[in-house]
Amino acid sequence: DLFSASEDGKNIALAGTKGGAEVTRIYTINVDTKRIDAQSIYPARWISGWSPDNKGFLYLMLNSADNKSMNSESNTRTMYHVVGSAPSSDKEIFSMRKYPNMGLTSADFCMAFFSTDFKYIIAAPSTVSNDLVCYYAPATDLLNPVISWKPLLQKNDHVTALAMDGDDVYMLTY
Question: Which three-class secondary structure state does DSSP give residue 66?
Answer without folding.
Answer: coil
